[in-house]
Structures are given as structure tokens and as C-alpha cells.
Amino acid sequence: MPPGTSDVVPSAVASQRVADSLRELILSGQLMAGTRIRQEDIAIQLGASRLPVREALRILESEGLTTLKANSGAWVSRVDLEECRAIYKIRERVEPLALQESIPHLTARDHAELDRIQDEIENVTDVETFLVLDRELHRLTYSACQIDLLLSMVQRFWNTTQHYRRAYSTITRHERQWVINAEHRLLIDAMKRRDIEDAERVLIGHIRRTRHELEQHPELFEHPHRVDDQGYPSTRNL
Amino acid sequence: MPPGTSDVVPSAVASQRVADSLRELILSGQLMAGTRIRQEDIAIQLGASRLPVREALRILESEGLTTLKANSGAWVSRVDLEECRAIYKIRERVEPLALQESIPHLTARDHAELDRIQDEIENVTDVETFLVLDRELHRLTYSACQIDLLLSMVQRFWNTTQHYRRAYSTITRHERQWVINAEHRLLIDAMKRRDIEDAERVLIGHIRRTRHELEQHPELFEHPHRVDDQGYPSTRNL
DNA sequence: TGTTTAATGGATGGATCCAATCACCGATGC
DNA sequence: GCATCGGTGATTGGATCCATCCATTAAACA
């Protein structure tokens, strides 16, 4: 199963359980980017030994959610503007492939579901539910892609930029929502027509526009009002 | 430092040291795809405890080089034809971006070095050195790309398909070498002209052609003449 | 004889303990 | 007063031991 998928039944392996819990804490925003993670704290908090926590931190590091530094500690990964731009540029290349591989296998039922979700998106006011729905919409567009490796890559990108999508949506969603809606509708239409080229073009534009708008809000990447993260490792071991 | 880079000075952290050693063993072909890895064997062989080996296996799993199954064991990742095709399809999308980001920052010195390597490639007869040179050439074309995340992704793809490039080159390199040479020369020329579009097009063709030729040699992915790999886990936890 | 079940062996996962490393803080010397 | 050096505390990394799980094998029953 690709990482990031929240298991309904908790994994029997403690490392996976811990990783799942931590991932949930990070993605939900309860663990802010840049906060330090002490192994023992987590171990106590989740009722496990430190060893599974160590392995969980490794797992999450491979997903890009945590950053480890030898003999120093672990932090919730902080994505600066430069890295965020990079991720979006990669997404502009990778997600169209997922779409291409998915479109031929999507059914009419899927198309209807896409319409339904977009209807919901256009009616929602809450930011948090918008994030969930938006992600669900795009996930569905890729869902019939058979390349697991690709899907988990995409999921990873979405996970690591989750914080900033939330922050950005909070700021400018209301005035720019119509653009998102238009793009989503065009995307869904192209998918229904199974016009892969067109769908890819719309999707690329969708991601690229978001990147450009993100680039105009560098304040989102200023270190937020946190003080308890003692020292942030400068070395990114990616 | 991106994974896969062989450290000159051995890392002080045992897990990293073990991971480096194992990676070298796998990439050099001394540990064949599909062979089981027993934690204790490696621990003894490398003079460490089982714990760093466990963490090393996690690290390598995140690089796609090993496959772990809970309560069962670890294996050197085996890439079937389907997954190999997938990786190449992703490479066709991702590597052009690395190229695009690199071309503007490459110097005349780099261009000369590219020519030199290609000269060597056209004179070499040994398969193993061809593999090294070919990889070095492409690495150099991407070397000025500033997106570390992208470079480590590319490196990962090259690592996981290393076995099959070796096997494929062994078979058909002699009769198809002229195609590779032509593509390399065209690529280098476009790069010198800093014609990003053209360079991307050549590169896409280069990767795509290789994929198509790989697809016509499914026998490379038949389980090789090994017997001591007891059972291969069907679940890919990517 | 084929199938199912139970037992055993081996390998992995987890917990605890110990060592090494780093960061912080104070003292000392310039 | 500032910088450098050394000590101390906290946190992570590693080793060993124990529990758990899986696979294989053998045996017993249909």
C-alpha cells in the first residue's frame, strides 16, 4: 500500500503504527513544520518503545515528512519557497502522466463522481473541507492509473506541501476560487471526452498557476510564530 | 547528500555505513535482484549489530533497492518488466525537467567534458565501462540542475534499473550502439546551442526508444538462474 | 493418498540497557 | 568585554536479550 494511506485497521507492526500516527499528526497540522520530535516523547505518547519510533521517523523521512540529523534529532520537515517551487515544477511533469495513464480506465461512474465533488467544492465555505475535497478530486482523476510508483510519488508531493496549500487557501481562496472551479470543470470535461492531450494541458496550467500564485506569497514560508523548535538543521539529507 | 553517492570517507553513523556498503554490493551486481538478505548475515559480514542493518534496510527500501516484508525478511528489489516500463515512462517526464533546469547553468567546460565522454563511449568495448560512462554523461547533463530533490529522484531511478541496463547492454549494445551515439551527439549539440526544447525532445526520444527496446526483451526479466531466494514477497510496499 | 492440522525451527520485531555524540553553559584567559 | 575552552546534561545511536511471527515439515486423519 502506498504511504500516506490511512489504514482503517491499525497495522500489526509497531513501526508502521507509529508512522501512521505521526503522519496523521503532521498532515492534520497538529505537528507544525519545524517542530522538533523527541523520540522518547513520542514513544511514551504512543505507548511504544523508542525503537519503533526511530524506524517510524526513518519511514516518514523517506516520505519527506520528517528530517533527521545524526546525533541531533528529528524535525517535521520544513519546506522553503524554493523547494516548494521545485515540487510544483516536478508535479507539472509527473501528474500529467498519472492523468494520461488514468483517463482510459475511468468509467462513467467516476465522471459522475468528479462532477459531484466539484459541485460540493463550489458550495463549500470551510477551508479545511475544501482542502479535503480538492485533494479527493485530483486523487480520483489519477485513481485508475496503474503505476503504483507514480501514485505514491504524487501522494508524497501532496503530503509535503499540505501545510502550504492550507495556508495559501486560507488567504486567497475566496477571490481566486472561480479560477480553480473553471480549471476543474475544464479538466473534467476533457476527461469525459477522453482527450488526454487537452486534459494534460489543463492540468499543467492548473498546477503552474498555483505555483506562480504561491511564488507571490513568500510570507507563507517565513518561519511562523513558533519558538520551541530549538535550532533547525541546515543540512537537508534528501 | 543524495542517496547513492558513494562516500569517500565512511560515515560515522553505522546505519549509513551499512547502507552504503549494501548499496555498493547491490549496484555492482554482487547481490543479485531477488536474493534474500538476512539481517544477521550482513551484521556479521560488516562487523556491526543487527540494529544498524535493520535501519540500513529501511534506508535502502526508501531508495527502492530493497523490499521488506514484516516478520518475513528483506530482499534485493526485483523489478519486473511492468515496473521497469513504468520507471522509464516517469523518466521520460522527469529527466527533461532536470535537463531544462541544468542547461542554462552549464559552462563551456562542461560541454567539452561531454564531448570527451562521448568520444570515450564511442571507443569503448567493455560493457561495464560503457555503463559507467553512459551514466556519467547523463549525470553531467543534469549536474547544473539546482533542484536536489529532482536529482535524487533521477538517481534513484537509475539505481533501481541498473541491473537491467547492464543485462540489456550486454545483449544488444553492439548492433544498436550507433543509435545511442547519434542521440548523445544530438543531445550535446542542442545543449551547446542552449536549445532547451530541442534537447528535451532528443532526451525524451532517447529514453523512450530504450523503453521500447527493453519491452522487446522480456526475457531479461525472467527469474534468473538462482535458487537460494526462498520465496519472493508478492506485496510490494511502495 | 491427499489434505489439513499441529509442532518446531529460524528469522524478524520490540524492549531495555549502555555508550557516544552534541549542545548548552559557565569559567577562565586574553 | 569578548572569545575560547572545558564540563555537564540531555538525546540519540548501538548492542544484547526476549517475544512474536511465519514457513516449513511432519504427522494424523479423512
From TrEMBL, chains A, B:
Keywords: DNA-binding, Transcription, Transcription regulation. Residues 218-229 have a biased composition (Basic and acidic residues). PROSITE patterns: HTH_GNTR (PS50949). GO terms for molecular function: DNA binding; DNA-binding transcription factor activity. Residues 218-238 are annotated as: Disordered. Residues 12-79 form the HTH gntR-type domain. The keyword Aminoacyl-tRNA synthetase does not apply. The keyword DNA-binding applies. This is Unannotated protein. It comes from freshwater metagenome.
